[in-house]
Design brief:
Blueprint (H helix, E strand, L loop, with lengths): L1 H18 L6 H12 L8 H10 L4 H37 L5 H13 L1 H10 L4 H11 L3 H26 L1 H9 L1 H23 L2
Helix pairs in contact: 2-3, 2-4, 3-4, 3-8, 4-7, 4-8, 5-6, 5-7, 6-7, 6-8, 6-10
């Protein structure tokens, strides 16, 4: 029952995010969504990015750039949350922000001890919660330049891939997501587990 309720909440958030695609503030909303998702918001910016790219395919790469900039800027915010105020905010994140658990957070800190660059890059590219890694990066005080470079490459690769695919395939992608949303949430969970396995193997090299 909790799983069904959680999916319903995510679905409502998904629809709300999608509604911004028809707003005159859509670009600002895209940047804001990418920014907040990097530290606390549960719906990935890909949702709005896809809708905007479908509506104006010629601007797909511009939308991808805006999403990347917003996400990396939000990542920097998460980094400084971890570095400066984590001891005062950790209870909030563990209690209210999806993706945050003490076990998972400690695991991420261990990954940073192995290979910080690959940990950030893979979390930025895959469905792994990037926000956990941004804040943990600040807590662990990994190199800021390493964090920025890995974030730009990871997030940029992901969002420009989305924008490029939409530029090529267009409307059918949006229809497919709406039709198979529940199935895709299950697939997302599978990819999440796979992402962690890839990350674990990569940082051990």
């Amino acid at each position: 029952m909790d799983g069904i309720r959680r999916r319903n909440i995510i679905r409502r958030l998904y629809d709300w995010v999608l509604s911004w695609a028809n707003s005159k503030y859509s670009i600002a909303a895209l940047f804001a969504l990418a920014f907040t998702e990097s530290s606390c918001f549960p719906v990935p910016p890909d949702v709005l990015l896809i809708a905007l790219c479908v509506s104006k395919p010629a601007r797909a790469l511009l939308y991808s750039l805006i999403t990347t900039l917003g996400s990396v800027a939000g990542g920097v915010c998460g980094y400084f949350i971890g570095m400066k105020i984590w001891e005062y905010t950790s209870n909030f994140f563990f209690t209210y922000v999806p993706g945050f658990t003490s076990e998972g957070f400690n695991h991420v800190k261990d990954l940073y001890g192995d290979n910080a660059f690959w940990a950030v890059f893979i979390s930025g590219f895959t469905p792994i919660p990037y926000k956990v890694f941004t804040i943990a990066a600040g807590v662990c005080k990994i190199g800021f330049i390493v964090f920025i470079v890995a974030s730009v490459l990871g997030r940029g690769s992901r969002f420009f891939l989305v924008g490029g695919l939409i530029k090529i395939f267009g409307e059918p992608v949006k229809k497919f997501i709406n039709k198979y949303f529940n199935l895709l949430t299950i697939l997302f969970a599978v990819l999440l587990v796979a992402g962690f396995l890839i990350l674990k193997l990569a940082v051990k090299k």
